[in-house]
């Protein structure tokens, strides 16, 4: 395993992409600050080990388990090697060949950087840009032992009343395990939990490449015991397996079309059906099919087999305006299928206690890399947090952590940090067009205010004031982008709402906004606060 070198230099790929761009931040963090950062993201760390680099590779055989009379006795350790947030190796330290076979090597869809310049064809045209059919609530966290109940075993969401939905005769299991229904691009079970925990730990500390050591704590909880960032030594090539992964990433970046003309974008924002007279969620499966542009999907633990969450899955498109037209068409289809007009449609981050909703965005035709994710975090997730209802803060850290992503089998990826932006067409238009602009020009967006400790903490606690103070330079850079003028009619209403310090209302019935007198896709009508915000 690589040592922590005293000297380090910027690690750049082709096109000027900078890897481990938060390395200086990481090196300045004290052990207690590292632990706090990890804890905000729902990850535990060993206070006695976190200040040390991860165990050296050549020591793995003799340090298979923890020893001594302490609670960590005879715990399995894992060493995870990561480059650009892709797991290259996942080694159970000292394990035999049978166990190694389940862990070693990249999983399908994870080790590669495909999709650059290619328009996705995943075989499911109604699931966004190759969407895997996976919803917000069926993702069972990192297994890292956070206080929010991040486990993989169907643990009840904090505050979720499993009697708060109307029962249904649906008997099939929703598969709310890691990877979700039809995941395919992620590894399930213990191996998946180890990998996700390691990648999330590295990203939360400003890194994307290096090695993470974890200790199993039982109940699919894993504690971080060591982190070693990848640090290239001047004049020396990268060691394997980093060298091969670096070459592959460089090839993928080189294949991208000029101005990312091949960028394809999809989505699967979620909403709930509420019977207001009883305060109960009505399962979307009563009205919507599993597949289709308007469908149902799994819910939080305690709702297995019910498929209570509704989703809109517009067909992916290359242009934001065309994608938004597909979204409105999907909303009209949902309106047609949901015959009960007394039901209220609710969206946002957590419109009901225990019901976290997501607005997942899908991309192909662009190479996933850490700088792209960090641009989405700072230039998109930050302003969306400023607009969100105070209730949405309860969604984190179980969902909505910074840099939450999932690679897809078709070579694209899913950005999972945002809440459901179906709260209004104005918010949806602004979010979709802003996301497209950011992904198209992320190399020109270098600001990282969320790296700062105060703002990182503010994001997870929902403290808006320090984040609001950090927003103006970000907005100025967005407005200066070459593609901003073409998207201004979509994005400007959202920015005006930010300037007015408005927030959306998650108790609002959104059905009429989308299926009644909703504004056209042209985006020319000024946003009216009464249509959108509290």
Describe this structure in words.
Helix 7 crosses helix 10 (464-479), helix 8 (425-440) packs across helix 11 (484-499) and helix 9 (453-461) crosses helix 10. The strands form 4 sheets. A 5-stranded mixed sheet has the order 3-7-6-4-5. Strands 9, 10, 11, 12 and 13 form a 5-stranded antiparallel sheet that branches. The protein has a 4-stranded antiparallel sheet with strand order 8-14-16-15, covered by helices on one side. The radius of gyration is 22 Å and the shape is globular. With 534 residues, the protein is an alpha+beta fold. The longest helix has 18 residues, at 320-337. Strand 6 (210-218) and strand 7 form a beta hairpin. The protein has helices at residues 23-28, 31-40, 97-103, 189-204, 242-255, 320-337, 370-387, 425-440, 453-461, 464-479, 484-499, 511-515, 529-532; strands spanning 11-12, 18-19, 44-45, 77-83, 86-92, 210-218, 221-229, 264-267, 270-275, 280-281, 294-297, 309-312, 344-346, 361-364, 405-407, 413-415. The chain contains 13 helices and 16 strands. Residues 145-154 have a biased composition (Low complexity). This is PhiEco32-like amidoligase-type 2 protein.
